[in-house]
Amino acid sequence: MAYKFIDNYREQGARKRLVEVLRKKGIEDERVLTAIGKVPRHYFFDETFWNQAYKDIAFPIGAGQTISQPYTVAYQTELLHIRKGDKVLEIGTGCGYQTCVLMEVGAKVFTIERQEKLYERTIQVLPYMGYKPKFFLGDGSIGIASDAPYDKIIVTAGAPTVPDLLLKQLNIGGILVIPVGDEKSQKMVTVLKTSENDYERHVLDTFRFVPLVGDRAW
User: Fold this and answer.
1) Is 68 tagged catalytic?
2) What percent of the chain has pLDDT over 70?
3) Does the UniProt entry include the keyword Transferase (predicted)?
4) pTM score above 0.90
5) Which of 68, 146, 185, 195 is an active site residue?
6) Angle at 102 between CA 96 and CA 104, to 5 degrees
7) Angle between helix 70-80 and helix 9-24 axes, rounded to 10 deg
8) Where are the beta strands (DSSP E) in 44-105?
């Protein structure tokens, strides 16, 4: 696949138009919209498909995975209510687009991916773009206990349930955002950890993600 890292007026203008699309769809957090407007999403596409990069759609990226729809990325990021310096665990690095958006809104990101081909590409591309999260290769469904606790956790794949190990890795007052359902569709769920053993859950809109695969998932 051929990739070129060029960001000119055409791409920058396309991002501005995408931001307006997301604003009209209900994304209100200006920091999130600014992040979407800054991250060059076309960098994650073979140049043959650059014309798809700023449409509000998901798109295949290989290894049976997709780059998430920009609306979905913005929606999940908004739900996290990230404050500058928050320690965020991302389950499912994928191509790294969501990672970049999280970092643009001020998060310190720890990100894990189980697909080795995606991992190998992402650990090269993101630092080249100026983003340097802490990368891990492995089973995201069990989290990364060695660096816990986290202020926020985001899961970018559909799970059958909320993995208990992820809840244990949240700080008190922390938020987990995860799509939960079957392999065809999921409801976005937010979990607020109110004490060491108590949680407040909210079930929101319906989405469709690739399955979360692992010991505590499919």
Assistant:
1) yes
2) 96
3) yes
4) yes
5) 68
6) 105
7) 60
8) 59-62, 65-67, 87-91
